Amino acid sequence: MEHLDDRTLYDKFAELELHAHKSVAELSEIQKSLMEVIERNAELEIENQHLRDHLQELEQHKSSENGGLSKSRKNLEKLYEQGFHVCNVDNMYGTRRLNDEPCVFCQNIIYGERK
């Protein structure tokens, strides 16, 4: 290795120090930008989840308005599909439907107009 005089050594050291300060400043700017991106990403993820939740609520509301059945009507539908009456015409509720024939009274209770 070549022997450097004191002045050249000092100049090289000063140049290296300046370069190090510039690198630190650049790293600080990159870190600041990265933190802004991470914060914005977190905000967007939260907003996105809220929008998904809202969309799901709207779809559920639309489903219930357009023929979607409530939990109790789904239970009645399940009983009906298993071959039982869910209407109370002539005290038929809970009795077996003959040959699984359709019952308009049961169907009206399950699928009829809702208030």
Automatic annotation (TrEMBL):
Keywords: Coiled coil, Cytoplasm, DNA replication, DNA replication inhibitor, Metal-binding, Zinc
GO molecular function: metal ion binding
Pfam family, one: YabA
InterPro entries: YabA
Coiled-coil ranges from the UniProt annotation: 27-61
Example of a GO biological process term: DNA replication
Top-level division of the source organism's lineage: Bacteria
Keyword NAD: no
Keyword Cytoplasm: yes
Name this polypeptide is given: Initiation-control protein
Taxonomic source organism: Liquorilactobacillus ghanensis DSM 18630
